[in-house]
Amino acid sequence: MKRKLWQSILLYATVIVACAVVLFPVYWMVVTSLQPPGSLRAYPPHFLPPDPQWQTYIRLFIETDILRWMANSAIVAVAATGISMVAAVLAGYSLSRYQTKSSENVGLFILMSKMLPATMLIIPLFGIMRSLGLMGSLWSLIFAHATAIVPFATWMLKGYFDSIPNELEQAAQVDGCTPWGALFRVILPVAAPGLAATSLYGFVLSWADYLFARTFLANNADSWTVNLGIATFKGEYQTDWNLVMAASLLAALPIMIAYLFLQRFLVGGMTAGAGK
Amino acid sequence: MADIQIQNLNKRYGTFQALHDMSLDVKDGEFIVFVGPSGCGKSTALKILAGLEAASTGSIIIGGEDVTELAPAKRDIAMVFQNYALYPHLTVRQNIGFGLMMRGTDKKQINQRVERAAQALEISDLLERRPKALSGGQRQRVALGRAIVREPRVFLMDEPLSNLDAALRVQMRAEITALQRRIGVTTIYVTHDQTEAMTMADRIVIMRKGVVQQIGSPDALFNHPANMFVAGFIGSPAMNFLSGKVQRDDRGLNIDAGGLRLPVAEAAAAYLGKTVICGIRPESLDLARGDAPALEITPTLVESLGTEAYVHFKLPGQQVATAVAGEHEHQPLGNGTLIARLYDVGTPLSGGTIRLGLKPQASVHLFDPATEQAIS
Hints:
By secondary structure, chain A is mostly helical. Helix content of chain A is 73%, strand content 0%.
């Protein structure tokens, strides 16, 4: 159906406004990172910095431990996502396929744990990590993030598994697979978009965390994650906002790269053609 | 290839009994069709045969080997699913070769066998495509290819044609039958379509509510139905049922059903003076000639199909509700509509009254009204 001119105009106008709302803060981060702190409050504001201060980025690498913080964040995010995905795949698959009287209750219980605010979990987790001797270790953060990722990831994956016809793994079993073989050779490849979306969700959740990191890692500067590190730029009397913004932009890069790589998986439609 | 023995198979889901004591011997190379309305247990039986469902009790023996407890992979069977169940992430070549790969067949041999199967099914040019780029008919062929390439002992097919349009269904029906005859693999085919059952099967197993009603060749089921359910299910349009009293006059034992004098066999003598149910196939009725006893009817609907016409009519107080009412598309329409299938009618029929008589040689099936079993 051909779109009328006014419909096209309305559509593009909506898209442009939506993009502007989403992208302006990022743009303002770039502008702020390239201006000296003194001109941040200039009026009228500079939408294009008159004298871009690229050396802010060089300072970031020379004067701070940003690379180590980013590496720590990456280790935590990858490990927490990995552990969570193993648990969530198996939990989601069993909730989807092996339905018993109790599975519905188990499913709701898992989802309910996601409804608790993170601040409520901090105290018991703090006690657990201290008794395990994990305070200050990246493992404390990995496990804490996994507890936050697994419930929602399980539900996301259950939804994806529900959309895959049972006959696919039955066909695989008749073709010679064990139930495990059918899961790994057929169901998981078919659920790739779901796995990608869920992994990305877990990665972002872990990467963006500040609360858990602040609680478990504050006393060990070697284990700081990028968000914890950036928070230390805020001084008592003065804050280098250009440095904060430059570091924040760098911290956002891995997420953007992950989105770019996983974009094709995030667009569903893998099961098209499985059935009628 | 192998014979199959199904012995006293039962399947319960909690308190619901999906399959009651099913027993069946299938000969090597035979084409068996399980047919029945939705929920009759035919697909459950097939899944138990495949090993995808566990039997509650009973056993399954394939080629002399008890496979009741074996995993699907160990039964050496192939299955075609209603929705084809093609692996969407694999190409047609990989789909067809998947079973061989799982069994550790040499890569070169897999390719040869896949190509041979593809050639037999005329899908050689589709081998590098993925399932989403195929039409329904092509997907069906790929599903068949995946089954035949393994050269299994048994083929199991679960309503494989139900997602195809009418014309393609007729074509694929003939192709599957020809393919099975050519390769001679013992086949069990599930359908709810009695036409498929009649045209494809060596023997039909007709089921209702988990109970096998009758096992026999298509001709045997059509001509000698064991009960009202079988009589009503097999044949399209479905058999008409009328009630009538068994009586004896100077021309022998007969039944008066709504003015139609139906001669019946001596076997019905035990019911003399009692009411029985008479089953008359729509094609057994014809326009009455002369002054022979006939049904005076006013058609409620005439469906002309060119060479034949389906004349719908009612006989108030006469028609009998069938045992399968509402369970199958080939039922007489609700509230007791009967159908006559008339050939070479010539003149339009709707409007006035017409007289219907029984064709010479047409058989009348009698059923006990209490048990619904055939009176033989």
